[in-house]
Amino acid sequence: MEEKLTLPEEEKVLLLDSIKKLQQLTGDMFTADDFRIIRDIMFDCEQQDALKRNAFGLNPIVFDLQTAIILAEEIGLNRASILSVLLHDSVAVGVRSIDYIRETFGDDVAHIIRGIIKVNELYAKNASIETENFRDLLLSFAEDMRVIFIIIADRVNLMRQIKDKGTEEERVKVATEASHLYAPLAHKLGLYLIKSELEDLSLKYLNADVYYMIKEKLAETKKSRDKYIADFIKPIEEKLSAAGLRFHVKGRTKSIHSIWQKMQKQKCKFEGIYDLFAIRIIIDSELEKEKQDCWQVFSIVTDMYRPNPKRMRDWLSVPKSNGYESLHITVMGPEGKWVEIQIRTERMDEIAERGVAAHWRYKGVKDSGAKLEEWLKEIRSVLETGGTSDEQLVDQFKVDLYSDEVFVFTPKGDLFKLPVGSTVLDFAFFVHTNVGCHCQGGKVNGKNVHIRTKLQSGDQVEILTSPKQMPKRDWLNFAVTSKAKNKIRQSLSEQEMKTISLAKEMIERKFKNRKIEMDEARMARLIKRMGYKHTNEFFQAIAEEVLDVNTVIERYVESIERDNNSGNDINPLHSAENFVAATPDDKAQGNKDVLVLDNNIKGIEYSLAKCCNPIYGDDVFGFVTVNRGITIHRCDCPNARRMRESMGYRVIQARWAGKGSGQYPVTLRVVGHDDIGIVNNITSIISKEKNVLLRGISIQSSEDGLFSGTLTIMIQEQKQLSGLIKKIQTVKGVKQVIR
Hints:
CATH topology of the largest domain: Hypothetical protein af1432
Mean pLDDT: 79
């Protein structure tokens, strides 16, 4: 084959070396016929001049051979993946058909090649990550997991070779994509060596001065660093050997990119970074004794060196979603230096080095690819949902890659996995619907917390419940999981229906006691005549005792009598000579006494009405209920007019006395221009007010550039509320503030 190819001499040498190395790596995968067919196909491509060099002038045949070597040597993929890399170009240019590939090598290879070609076609149109192309690219990834590995290997190969090739603009473009897309992908798949290399190479092309500065500094300190590692390891090795463990130790310098990130995060120079290296203790252990041996090593090391508990990472008990298992500890070594130690077995190390693909080498390891496939399905679901912009789509993808799940424990040690941002309330509903519905708080790591407290990985959570607690509508503002939100909505709906049902039963019982037969059509007309648009509103008013059942029955009887008398003579007219107009007080006050509202009041049961939420200082009146004492309403309550007109004999005067104490809930509706920062300005004003708490906020934007929102606050008195409303009205962009 090499004699007929018209290649430059150095490429011929590179080609022959690559073929030889690939044969060594795949000798047990490929047959003699496989190599012969591949050779013939590559020869035909070269003879027909079908393959073209890429933008960096790289030969496609040599490049594909190098990519195949990365797949076999560094990732560990099998025959189908390697064949797909070597043959996809021949299918793309028409030298061989996809049907020929299927007949010769099977459906698996043909399927992978279709995915590779699809991705390459997208890059041929436009290599930048744009909305439609990016969506299609990831959907192509999700068709077959192996396509992801092949695309990553291809990009690693490219990044290794473009130092002096192509234009600077092309190098920056490739490096940016590697940093934003391929390195996070490699991280998610557990390809940590490849991920670190992609990040280092990206830094090399995007910020060469920083890259070479750190590289030179590492070279200068290598000798002293190596000596320190050797001195640190020696006593550990002696102890481990004495314990009868089979192991070997590696000393690994952190990647240039990770050092640069630390310098930026800690805002210091290279000399200020002390943990430049990590030591890896790798145990030769049987599968069933892996955890036991790792914890034994942990015990030996921490007996010798003082550990930092805040920097311990236990991925033995709870492996990462990409399959990574290891035990990380940081100990204080000689000269007061912190040293990171990673404890793992040979199996864990191979998975850490080579990623999810390494799972396939171990029999009996369950769920080898299920978690990755689950992630791919989530990404596909996000991408298949339209309406996202370029930046939103890329940001969503980055967040999904870098955000792990939250793992929390019950007091009994049971483990639960929740989405990031989940609250105590979400966890309560995750445990059981009844637990969530009656949740009134929780204990996180032994401390009492509010139900809206966000959970962190490793938290031990205990849910506190009360049989009197029921879901509230504001729970929807901070619940995160769809399960919690759905159950809250369902419970609220059930509460409303239960209340309405009880009200119906009560009114039916009252009619029956009065020996009045209730006609549904007549009742429907009466409900409408009383000003209720829906029957549910009517029964809700009955349940809340805003509307008295006896009044309804009286109105119902009046309607019957009116209909019965409709055929009689019209009542005679009376002279207006002696007519005296009734004053509002005459009509509305069946009792001239005034109820004085004071904390020290005794013998009188009263409560603040939920329909208008009066606070200290409001103009108020009292309403005598059947079995709940007196409810206090604002004079401008939406139900005030109806109560005065239909049940004036139960209305009494009321006023506040003394000074306001405690805090009252108030809901404000704010309307304004949807400008950046306006919500922050409003909440900032509230936070600066003394003895005012913001309990909830809900904002909705409209297409006309306005926003409408509700603020739920806790406040002491009406005068303070008026002042706060005036301050909010002064915020630029606020048009209206309504209580």
